[in-house]
Design a protein that fits this description.
The complex is a heterodimer.
Chain A: E1 2-13, E2 16-27, E3 31-35, H1 42-49, E4 57-62, E5 65-66, H2 71-75, E6 78-81, H3 93-104, H4 109-119, H5 132-145, E7 150-154, H6 162-177, E8 181-186, H7 189-195, E9 198-203, E10 206-211, H8 213-217, E11 221-228, E12 241-247, E13 250-256, H9 260-268, E14 272-278, H10 282-290
Parallel strand pairs in A: 3-8, 3-9, 6-7, 7-8
Antiparallel strand pairs in A: 1-2, 1-4, 4-5, 9-10, 11-13, 11-14, 12-13
Helix pairs in contact in A: 3-5, 4-5
Chain B: H1 9-45, H2 49-59, H3 62-68, H4 79-113, H5 115-120, H6 128-155, H7 162-187, H8 193-217, H9 219-224, H10 226-231, H11 242-264, H12 288-316, H13 321-327, H14 329-334, H15 343-375, H16 380-383, H17 389-422, H18 429-437, H19 440-456, H20 463-481, H21 485-488, H22 506-529
The chains are: A alpha/beta, B mainly alpha.
Chain lengths: 292, 533
Amino acid sequence: MNIIELNNVTKTFGKVTALDNISLNVEKGKVYGFIGPNGAGKTTTIRIMLGILKPDKGEAKLLNKDTWIDAVDIHKHIAYVPGEVSLWPNLTGGEVVDFFSKLKGNSNKEKKEELYSKFDLDPSKKCRTYSKGNRQKVALVAALASDAEIYIFDEPTSGLDPLMEKVFQEYVYELKKQNKTIFLSSHILSEVEKLCDVISIIREGKIVETGSLNDFRHLTRSQITVETKDEIKDLHLQKGVYDIETVGLKTTFQLDSYKFGNIIKFISKYDITKLESAPPTLEDLFMRHYEK
Amino acid sequence: MRKQYFYNVWKMTKFIFKRDKIRLLIWVLTLVLFDMMVLPSMNTMYPDQAARDSFRLVLENPAMIAMFGKGYGLENYTFGAFYAHMMYLWLGLFNGVMAIMIVPKYLRGDEEEGRYEMIRSLPVGRNSNLLASMIVIIITFTSFIIFKFLSLIVLGIETIDFAGTLNYSIGLGLIGILFAMIVAAISQMYQSNRTVMGVSFFVFLGLYIMFSIGILSSKVLLWLSPFQWLLHSQPFVNNIYWPLMIIILVSIVLAILALYLSSKRDLDAGLFKQKTKAHKTKEYIKRPFGFALRLNKTMIIGWLVACLILGASYGSIFGDLESFLAGNEMLANILPPDSEYPAAVIFMGVIVMVMGISSTIPAVLVMNKVATEEKKGRMEIIFSHPVSKKEIACSYFKIALITGILAMFVSALGLYLASSTVMDDNIAFSIMLKAIMVYIPSLILLLGLSLLLTGLIPTKIWIVWLYIGLGFFVVYIGQILGLSETITKLTPFGYAPQIPVDEMNWITQIIITFVGLVLGYLGLIKYQKRNSL
């Protein structure tokens, strides 16, 4: 069953087309990674999912309800952390968290206390004294303390230090175990790689790739370093080989993952003494999509 | 409209009160106390029929009618009728200003800052915040009505009776609510908090000008202005309620319009889009002086226009000065009884003092920016470039000084333009210019003080305002209250001569200028040496 469903959604602001015919589905219990550079349309997509922007064309559904019309009903079952958290300077962090859970109607005091200490946040301080990271923690505590079906995170760790990033990731694992659905927008690729079951790449308002990380492996290249007894000849004539650099008998090159077998057969003729292969990362894929 | 649009509206209402109760309380108390203080003093100043009648004659001049309205119950000019004539419209204007100062923050402020986005991701209807803000405003002005009513009844002045006070308090409260609803509708149309405030004040001024022109020449225009609906309730005279019903009806229509627009629109969107201009930075902005000028441009222009209008509005009363002074004991006290100069020239000296002090305000606003920009953390990025603190401070000082002098110039210009059209034997522009330029040394002293504070205690930069406020109080109000000379000498304004009545005291003024420069220099040194905030 699809918990999040966007069908052919288009959104324009004046002359700018922010989203161009976007479709995506997230099944229950999945962690969905949404990556793309700044200004690609990540936040606009999320705002449509939250029902605070109305799509010009297409339909957006969460929990099988229209995001614009049934916003309030949907919001009883979601938790959201924006990328840029702005708070009321004259309220304390704790007051903000409590107010949010009061609006939501469910309040779990122990869970909040646990989150405060895990995230190392002092809720008794006024929001005006918080740094960017601390403001983000307030939003994270409010979201993680609430009992929701869908968790939507918009670049949730952009202001956190690596230690806190880890705490956040642990909570995501825990939510995943509880079969919650998670939508994570990010441009920190390692995070997406670690957490997500399904990944979409968005670029200039269009989704250019969707799949699991394994699916993507076929599109990625490995970095191969090889040393042979004999000099390798005609490597550049082989398909799927790029950026060859040769220093004496040591050769490095990029290799399309799906050509792996062919090329290994080819170079084994030259008597391999050493072979290293760096695994493909999302970053390669990402860079390939954004190189102009 | 769907019920879901208003989900959690009461929790939102409580939340607004929680955040803003102190500010709301201060506003309400200030507006209530103001009346409570003015009323008894007016009662002692115009105790009998004769005094009130003489003042009524002054109010019959067209300029005064445009400002205050025609007044009601003139044939039986009781103190109540007189008080309503003087104060009702102006307090109505104050309440309008209060609404415009308060409401945009709830509606666009939070949205622009991105706080509203998180609230909207929770189960909160898309109209809940708007309706909650309306409820807050209605509760605030209702408590205003109650406080105002009780406070005036307690004073127990004869013609300030029960029925009149009730009408008066309700009228003032309702005009505040009306303007809150106008702002609510406008804030659905424009994207930024600043634009909403700007457009609201524009509408506010437009409606007041419509009233002023209408009362002199056009019934239709007059009745289109809500200020006429307010005045026509005629408190303390006839206590009519149907004009106030119009205010309520129009408020309801505006509220529904605002709610309708809000239910249709996207977050961060408005009916009118912000224009996107081609990006091009003008050459002058690329140095600290030009950059500071660019930051302050809009504020400076706004203040220059305000100074021109202030000068012109003072100038417009010169035509009926004799009768005006005869009727106003308060101002008559200031003028020396017999003098070789005509009353108009003496009066100009007093007015120029007010204009001189107000001209320092935009200048000090600019100068204080050195500290306020730093406090907001925007100076850091500038200092990270090869720019010295000295260059920044000096740029601001130069801009501030020029702003102050320009403000004095346009004040005098406004005064001259208006007065020369209403006077038979008008005062020369050069005399006015000399009279106001006497305040330049005081201006330099204030700028020096601002710079000194910037160097020593930048977080307490508001002390300058306290000092200016004291100066204004001592020099202007002090003359009416008869404060002693020594107190007026605490501020630089106390040393400024009233040209041409007084002799120019060159030595004193040079000393003041020198003191100002020394303070500024000390401040500059401290500023360069101290850590950034």
